[in-house]
């Protein structure tokens, strides 16, 4: 696997080990994108955030 794939796998493993911190990061990024785009892509950012949470097994993926 290439360097980018290796980095993505490492990030996913770290998120699995620290799901609360990963959730905070996902929330922060989602808010930032929504603010910068004037909520124009809110549905897409919600979907992306949920997918990110599912990728590392967060239990909060459907709670938001």
What this model shows, in words?
Residues 9-53 have a biased composition (Basic and acidic residues). With 64 residues, the chain is mainly α. It has a domain at 26-54. Helices cover 73% and strands 0% of the residues. It has helices at residues 3-17, 19-36, 42-55. The longest helix has 18 residues, at 19-36. The model has no long low-confidence stretch (mean pLDDT 90).
Distance between the termini: 33 Å
Query: What is the string of SSEs from the N terminus onward?
Result: HHH
Structural class: mainly alpha
Largest sheet: none
Query: What is the averaged pLDDT score?
Result: 90
Count of distinct strands: 0
- Oligomer classification: single chain
The DSSP helix count reads 3
How does the SSE layout of this entry go?
Layout: H1 3-17, H2 19-36, H3 42-55
Helix pairs in contact: 1-2, 2-3
Region (Disordered): 1-64
InterPro entries: Antitoxin_Rv0909/MT0933
Pfam families: MT0933_antitox (PF14013)
A few lines on this structure:
The chain has helices at residues 3-17, 19-36, 42-55.
Keywords, separated by commas or semicolons:
64 residues, mainly alpha, 3 helices, globular, Antitoxin_Rv0909/MT0933, Kanamycin biosynthetic protein
